[in-house]
Write a structure and sequence with these properties.
The protein is α+β, with helices and mostly antiparallel strands and 146 residues long. The chain contains two helices and seven strands. Helix content is 21%, strand content 40%.
Length: 146
C-alpha cells in the first residue's frame, strides 16, 4: 500500500512490534498498525490503512460534531485503559481544528490530551483519502517536541 524510507537515526516497526510498542508506551495496542519514530523517541507516528473503498470528499466538516464523537470514544477508551491498569487520558479539545485540503485529499486535525500526571500530549492526525480506502497517520508528541 505504501513505502517509507527509514533513516539510520530512526526505526520502523511492523504490526506485531507496533502493537507491543504501543502497549509499552501506555496505549491500547491493536493489530494492523505500523510505527515510525526517531531513536530518541521524543515523538512517534502510527500508520494504518483502512481498505474501506472509495471515500467521497464532498461532505461538510463540523468540528464540534467530530470533537463530540472523539470525546465519546475517549470515554470508552478510558474505561478500557482503567480495566488494563493504564493511566487515563482526557481529551481536552482541538490543538489544530479539523480542515480538509481538496488538492491533496487530506483531512487533518490535532487533539490535545492530558494525562493523569498532568502531562500534555498532542495527537496530530492525517487521513489520506484514496480510491481503495483511507491511510491514517497519527503523530504523537508533546507540544514542544522536535
Amino acid at each position: 500500500m505504501a513505502s517509507i524510507g527509514v533513516p539510520k537515526d530512526a526505526m520502523f516497526l511492523g504490526s506485531v512490534g507496533s502493537r507491543r510498542f504501543l502497549e509499552l508506551m501506555g496505549n491500547l495496542g491493536s493489530d494492523g498498525k505500523y510505527t515510525f519514530a526517531p531513536r530518541s523517541l521524543n515523538w512517534f507516528a502510527v500508520f494504518n490503512f483502512d481498505p474501506s473503498g472509495y471515500v467521497k470528499d464532498d461532505e461538510t466538516l463540523d468540528p464540534d460534531e467530530l470533537l463530540g464523537i472523539l470525546k465519546k470514544n475517549n470515554v470508552a477508551g478510558n474505561d478500557e485503559r482503567r480495566r488494563r491498569g493504564l493511566e487515563t487520558l482526557v481529551l481536552e479539545g482541538w490543538y489544530v481544528v479539523p480542515h480538509y485540503d481538496i488538492q491533496t485529499k487530506r483531512l487533518e486535525w490535532g487533539t490535545k490530551l492530558r494525562e493523569e500526571s498532568g502531562d500534555v500530549t498532542v495527537n496530530y492526525t492525517i487521513r489520506l483519502l484514496g480510491r481503495s480506502g483511507v491511510m491514517n497517520a497519527t503523530l504523537v508528541s508533546s507540544p514542544g517536541a522536535r
